Amino acid sequence: MATCWQGLWAYRFYLIVFFLPIILLPLPILIPTKEAYCAYTIILMALLWCTEALPLAITAFLPTVLFPMMGIMGASVVSTEYLKDTNILFIGGMLVALAVEHWNLHKRIALRVLLIIGVRPSLLILGFMVVTAFLSMWISNTATTAMMVPIAHAVLEQLHKVPKSKDVEEGENNPAFELQEPSPQKEETKLDEKDNKQDGPAPPVPSEPKAQQDEEQLRFTRGMSLCVCYSASIGGIATLTGTTTNLVLQGQVNSLFPENDNVVNFASWFAFAFPTMVILLLLSWVWLQFLFLGFNFRKNCGLGDEMRERERAAFEVIRREHKLLGPMTFAEKAVSTLFVLLVVLWFTREPGFFTGWGNLAFSDEDGKSMPSDGTVAILIAVILFIMPSKIPGLTQEPGKPGKLKAPPALLNWKIVKEKMPWNIVLLLGGGFALAKGSEESGLSKWLGDKLTPLESVPPPAIAFILCLLIATFTECTSNVATTTIFLPILASMSQAICIHPLYVMLPCTLSSSLAFMLPVATPPNAIAFSFGGLKVTHMAQAGFMLNILGVLVITLAINTWSIPMFDLHSFPSWAQSNTTGFCGVSQANITTPSPYTTV
After folding, report:
1. Along the chain (599 residues), what's the average pLDDT of each consecutive run of 10 residues?
2. CB atoms within 10 A of CB 414
3. Domain-embedded: residue 73
4. Contact, 487 vs 505, CB < 8 A?
5. Is 89 within 8 Å of 240 (Cβ atoms)?
6. Residue 537: predicted pLDDT
7. Which terms are listed as keywords in the entry (predicted)?
8. Buried b (16+ CB within 10 A) or exposed e, 277-294
9. Domain residue limits at 54
10. Which of 180, 386, 528, 573 would you label with 406, given CA atoms 20 to 30 Å apart?
11. Could you give the CA distance from residue 66 to residue 62 in angstroms, rounded to a whole number?
12. What are the phi and psi torsion angles at 413 (to 5°)?
């Protein structure tokens, strides 16, 4: 019997893929309508995304097969949904992020900030959280965590042992940093190969056996690991390109409400999400310090001769590694300049509170900016492939005297081919295809009609309950899949009960990033967990409170500064055009407990 269950478990993914479509077949057979056909596709894809029986990107291709065969949309119409402007923005942003990683610019920024903040226990966690959150605003959360966790353990290794000043003065190499991304001239070693390396440098964990380590040191180590992975997820919500779920929202809004006048762009998202990120990051620091350090002022501030000696050793580790990077190269300066230029162009293209360069120089007949954020990202990415990594000039190729060569560009296709997450591009496209299919089949209208009884529930209560639901759901499924499934439903619900669509779509998008409780919830959690010292109970204990804090902060944001920013107190005309009912433009204040009123 045990062998039978083991066999079923071993073949569980095959069984799910085979039987799941058959089990759901009664829906389209008994209800032969386009709405039922679309619902069948959405339910099937949602379950496959939750179980991951198929790769997420492969599941995202199902609309290209099912929608044409079910008569919902033509194949050419479905295919166009897989490369929209939001996908272009993601690709351009990732190309710039890959250049930053390739030239180790993110490591230089991290070490420099840590040198400024210092290594006192009370500030060390805050320092790592600030650095990690800032980096994850611009580059991959996974790459940020993979870089910062070894640095954190290398610093803790010096902080937890009585240092020998001789070693420090002689500049003894710290093997923990050898697990970092190598220089741009070398190939990047994969994380799994680093962890499994037997004859190489020691892994970045405390050298003493766990049984002999002090309990306070263990708690501090756990807190450092968690602070890095949590702040990577928190930092990603601050910018539109910081995490893929933000781009899913922008794409869904543009797809479902094509007349929305570009309400979600880089500048508007940053103005809304950045204060949310800062508040949540500070509350997370307070909670992690209370949970893993307590409120012992003497210890947390590093008072005492022995603690100061350890701090000097840990500080020396950071200073030495920063010194090993050497002065900034031409490539680093060039990438930094292009990165700053990209951010400035994003903010000033169409900011809303003043006329942007897009409106002035490249406007259409209505005065709107024709270039998008994706246009700017691709422009900077193309420049990365053109600009040389060294001051232009001819140099001899090593080992081949007399043969001249030009310096390589700041970015090349080999790096892109190895590191670009193309599966996310396809996953985004699958979500946009589902949203378009829901609209074309009439499923969105049907859902809206069924959700009209929610009009009697106060909007703040609806937003709060939905945030809790999404935050719970995202612990077990992909963040991108979660937003892809829920956002079209929330858009239909908002139209049915005459709530501004962004009032429910914005907080639920942010809530999908609150994956703090389980190692499998998000890649940063898994990376921190793989370095040892953590149990699932530790992550669940810390993450549960962070989920609650996150939902409360998001609820505060959507009911305060976001209201005048997105005009959430009224139902927009661009959402009115897609619904059969009529919602008045003037509505009750959204922060009041009374339901919306229509005129």
Report:
1. 83 94 94 93 90 90 95 93 89 90 87 80 84 90 85 76 42 39 38 41 44 66 88 92 90 88 89 94 91 66 57 80 89 93 89 81 83 91 93 66 78 91 88 88 83 84 92 85 87 88 94 88 84 80 92 94 90 71 50 38
2. 10
3. yes
4. yes
5. yes
6. 86
7. Ion transport, Membrane, Sodium, Sodium transport, Transmembrane, Transmembrane helix, Transport
8. bbbbbebbbebbbebbbe
9. 1-77
10. 180
11. 6
12. -70, -25
Q: Please state, in angstroms and rounded to a whole number, the distance separating the CA atoms of residues 288 and 294.
A: 9
CA-CA-CA-CA torsion sign (132, 347, 503, 50):
negative
How far apart (Å, rounded) are the C-alpha atoms in residues 351 and 34?
40
- Label residue 44 left, alpha or beta by phi (over 0 means left) and psi (-120 to 50 means alpha): alpha
**Residue 537, SS3?**
helix
Number of domains in the chain: 1
Q: Please name the residues in contact with 22: beta carbons below 8 A apart, sequence gap of 6 or more.
A: none
382 located within any domain: no
Checking 449-453 for CB contacts under 8 A at 24+ apart, the result is: 449/496, 450/496, 451/492, 451/493, 451/496, 451/497, 452/496, 452/497
CA dist 254 and 269 (Å) reads 14
Q: Which residues contact 178 (CB under 8 A, 6 or more apart)?
A: 200, 201
Type and span of the H or E element at 273? helix 266-292
The rounded distance, in Å, linking the Cα atoms of 206 and 465 is 42
Q: For residue 464, what pLDDT is reported?
A: 93
pTM of the model: 0.79
Tokens of residue 541, six digits: 């204990």
Give the burial class of 50: count Cβ atoms within 10 A of its Cβ; 0-12 exposed, 13-18 middle, 19 or more buried. Answer: middle
> How far is residue 332 CA from its own chain's centroid?
24
Q: What is the C-alpha end-to-end distance of the chain, expressed in Å?
A: 66
CB 172 within 8 A of CB 319: no
SS (H, E, C) 191-205: HHHHHHCCCCCCCCC
Beta bridge pairs of residue 404: 396
In a domain, 94, yes or no: no
Query: Token match 């999400």: residue?
Result: 273
Residue ranges with strand state E in 113-152:
none
Pairwise CA distance, residues 503 & 566, whole Å: 9
The whole-number pLDDT of residue 512 equals 92
Alpha-carbon distance of 274 to 235, in angstroms, equals 9
Residue 42 lies in a domain: yes
Predicted pLDDT of residue 474? 86
Residue 352: left (phi > 0), alpha (psi -120 to 50), or beta?
Answer: left
Q: Are 60 and 426 in contact (CB under 8 A)?
A: yes
CA quadruple 256, 258, 263, 265: dihedral positive or negative? positive
Query: What is the DSSP secondary-structure string of 406-469?
Result: PPPBSS-HHHHHHH--HHHHHHHHHHHHHHHHHHHHTHHHHHHHHTGGGGGS-HHHHHHHHHHH
Determine contact, residues 513/479, Cβ cutoff 8 Å: yes
CB 72 within 8 A of CB 34: yes
Distance CA 513, CA 482 (A): 10
| Helices 422-441 and 443-450, packing angle to 10 deg | 70
Q: What are phi and psi of 446, to 5 degrees?
A: -65, -45
